[in-house]
Amino acid sequence: MFRRPWIIKKVTMPITETGDQYSVWVGLIYIFNLIVGTGALTLPAAFARAGWGLSTISLVFLAFMSFMNATYVIETMACANAVLKWKRLQLIKRNSVQENESDEEGMSSHAYGDLEDPLVCGESIPSRYYSLDKCIELGEMANLFLSKVGRTMFYCTLCVYLYGDLSIYSAAVSKSLMDVICSTVPSNVTNTTNWDVLPCFNSPSDFTSTYTRFDCYRVALLTFFGAMGPFVFFNVQKTKYLQLFTSGMRWLAFAIMISMAIHLLIVYGPQGKPPAFDFTGIPTLFGACVYSFMCHHSLPALISPIRGKSRLGLHLALDYGLISIFYLLLAFTGAFAFSTLNDLYTLNFVPTDNDNILLEIVEYFLALFPVFTLSTSFPIIAITLRNNLQSLFLDTSRLDSYNIVFRKLLFPVVTVVPPLLLTYFLQDISILIKFTGSYAGTGIQYMIPTFLVLSARRHCTNLLGLGVVNRYKSPFSNIAWAIFVLLWSFMCVILVTVNMFERNS
């Protein structure tokens, strides 16, 4: 019987998204820049507390765990693309039935067969169901593959993590401004817990003697929220040039810090004497490492525009290897170059009175580095949190139906006020990082990707069958790896919780 192949060819063309694409190497640079952010500034202090031997082993192991779960995110994204393509195919079929009701039954069945053949195929031809063409965010994956309870837990975990991010950003910026504005801490004050009660300015004036460093911190915090907070009421997007500018400053700052630490080691020798193993520092190190290797919530947006994804897993492993080497270099040089390390590494380079103008400029640049980079990221994180809060409590398909005051005012205020109150009374970044990294970070980086990939595999197997192979399947696809990740996550959360209670008791 005569068939119309031109119709079949038209509807079976691959579904792709338009937009700017880049090579795999450019994509890996973006992932590198995403992972190596301000979280790396907390590594040297945590590295020194846990000991250089234990920290090295832990950092490499946590890098491997982060990479494993990154492959889970990629596999789940491919599954989500397959589900959407399958739904599109079913819609095409239904439309074809409606348009060809007068056609003969045999002709229609042949058309459906041609429609499916290029997609469901053997081992020699890769399946076009599974792809990474369409950017599908973690929230969309959760809506596709998780139950209502799972989706609620996902959004709650993500919101807690983003609240922690905003708090860490606020405290880091305010502490950096405080250290630049206030006078240098006297060399005879070695206990860092007493720094906050010191006068901000070394002056005999009655007013300045009562104005402490912590007062300056609070003023800087309120000023920061006054400048950055209003952006949460609008839609602000990163521009390409802003990203390039902040990335360039970030790498310049890291290069300067490593170079200065190496110079101090060569000139003065090792001033820091971290132990080889100190298990009491594990909770802080764990939180810092999880925070420093976090990229999973933004991974889909970075990998979807990459051209040539056939060896994406191998290239991603290379990226993680380079990041691990960079982190070890930053942490080792800092741990041995300085006798005392601040929670935020840039605070070890606070400006000092010296005759070298160039050195003083470099010190001011490093001290203000968190201010420049975090101030540009704060509005984006805040808007992301606001949108996720709306998705959790409102029906996003009919946002315009809600009261404008409720929608435009309440959620931005709920986004900004909790981090402000938290950091107003608590400026200890190590506590914030420990909680955000150890709890919410564990959920975002370990538990959510594992639960998503397990549910996605089961869903796609029931929907497409075993004959359709996912070419982006994680190399850690054995169920034993997923069980190991979950057991590791639960064990770490329990250990961190026990340690926190023991230290507080």
Automatic annotation (TrEMBL):
Q: What is the annotated localization of this protein?
A: Membrane
**Family indicated by similarity:** Belongs to the TMEM104 family.
Domain of life of the organism in this record?
Answer: Eukaryota
Q: Which residues cross the membrane?
A: 21-47, 59-84, 153-172, 217-236, 248-268, 280-299, 320-341, 361-385, 405-426, 479-501
Q: Which UniProt keywords apply?
A: Glycoprotein, Membrane, Transmembrane, Transmembrane helix
Signal sequence: where?
none
What lineage, starting at the top, does this entry show?
Answer: Eukaryota, Metazoa, Ecdysozoa, Arthropoda, Hexapoda
Q: Name one Pfam family in it.
A: Aa_trans
Tell me the PANTHER family matching this sequence: TRANSMEMBRANE PROTEIN 104 (PTHR16189:SF0), TRANSMEMBRANE PROTEIN 104-RELATED (PTHR16189)
Keyword Transmembrane assigned: yes
Q: What is this protein called?
A: Transmembrane protein 104 homolog
Q: Enumerate the spans annotated as Amino acid transporter transmembrane domain.
A: 22-76, 235-493
Provide GO CC annotations from the record. Answer: membrane
Q: Which organism is it from?
A: Vanessa tameamea
Membrane topology, record value = Multi-pass membrane protein
